[in-house]
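Hi R.,

Here's the chain you asked about this morning:
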Amino acid sequence: MAFKLNKTLYRTVIIASFIAVNALIISGIGSAWVFLNTGADRTSMLHLEVPMDEVYRPEIAWSNVDNPGRPIEEQTLGEITNDYLNAWHVRNIAFKKNDYYGIKDFYTDSARVRLYDNIDLNLKNNNWYKRTTLKHNGAIDFYSVDGTMVVFKDHNVVEYQEIYTGEELLYKEKDTTSYHVMMLLEDGFWRIRHLKEIENSRDTTTLAARDIDAELKKIENLKGINYYPKDTPWDTFGKRFDATVINEDFKIIHDMGLNGIRIFVQYEDFGKSTVKKDKIALLVKVLDLAEENKLDVILTLFDFYGDYDVSNWTLTNRHAEAIVHAVKDHPALLAWDLKNEPDLDLASRGRERVIGWLEQMMENIKLWDRNHPVTIGWSSPEAAVELVDQVDFVSYHYYRELSDFNKTYDILKKKALDKPIMLQEYGLSSYGGIWNFYRGSDKRQAEYYAEIQPLLLEKNIPFVAWTLYDFSEVPTAVVGKLPWRKSKQYHFGFLTKRGKKKAAYEHFALQK
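And the predicted structure, written out as tokens:
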């Protein structure tokens, strides 16, 4: 009896083991199959020291996927796109660091030779490059029947490049190049076998003429205010977003006889290069409320942003592109303000770098939106002469003594190429504590507006004052921690924190 039991137990163990082993094999095959047929980031298996999405997000548009080989599957096209852009990303890193790192993962043996030669030459001459592209335009020529080779053209690729010797910037350039590309499927990855420059294709895209005359006329007649909610300054679209509060504020602004506002979008708050849909929804809601209250909106795209490095231009372009396309047709939108006070970064970030970023951003926004003017919110009248030939209207900020206002305005007007000039920020704090030597007061603030408002109206200078409310809190990121700077920021409003009219209100509000 015992022998029979042992024999039965032995057979049971063998059968159970066989089932378990086969289950593991099937499970492994299934897992592999699921991995190969999902959108898993295959680049995590490769040698990318920085994920591409964090530093490089160019757009690629395929204009033709028909080919004489076999139909190209949507998933396959996605894999080709991803590996192709990763190859550009790796090349950019290689030329920036003069390092072979990662090249073998995205280029075949023969294609690596030229890259390695270029890197060796750069090392010899102590040269290095910062490079980026913003958009690629692919058209499939051939996709092989066995699915292991694809040939396509990448038309009119706009490349931005800075060339350095040591730490010295030699020159920068913008170049448009077309490429003939062959990629092979090796070990489950698409690698570039052939990347050859070809004669640029003629760009047959016909852009509609920019139609901004009506908006510029509104700009010339704008009488507005820079707006933040009093309880959430510099955080309009944050967790405490309250449409009811904003609507009531807009009613107040309209009742003051004003017809416009300027609002701000923060780069990080909106999700950087991957703009959050819920933030877009809140922005649209604010524009809806502005329209209901008959207020035109100047939208400042970048505030508290200071990384102008050419390597990261694709990130800010994806950010701006998403916002522009989301709201460019909204009836409340009046104009785009690229950047708040970029001249404050000229010394620390480098003038060429800041100006280069502004130029390419302006060019692209004008392509994305043909119907709204573009400006830059310079911090002074002296800085506002920068890019005066490229902006649609000139904007500057003024927080100095009024005795110099006429002189500085007249100088700027002579250099503004007959374009509208907007006083985009101005005002006086009523703070009168120790950090202002007890000089400020509600009375002095009122006297300031009693002097400047008639001047602006007489000269027909469009204006956007700072700001509606005194604030309960001011983030350190705005002006730093120094109390003599921060204390003033609480008291620029025409209304107190409780909504009571200050003396300046009567000199600023217009008769309707």
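The CA atoms of residues 39 and 78 lie 9 Å apart.

Let me know if you need anything else.
M.
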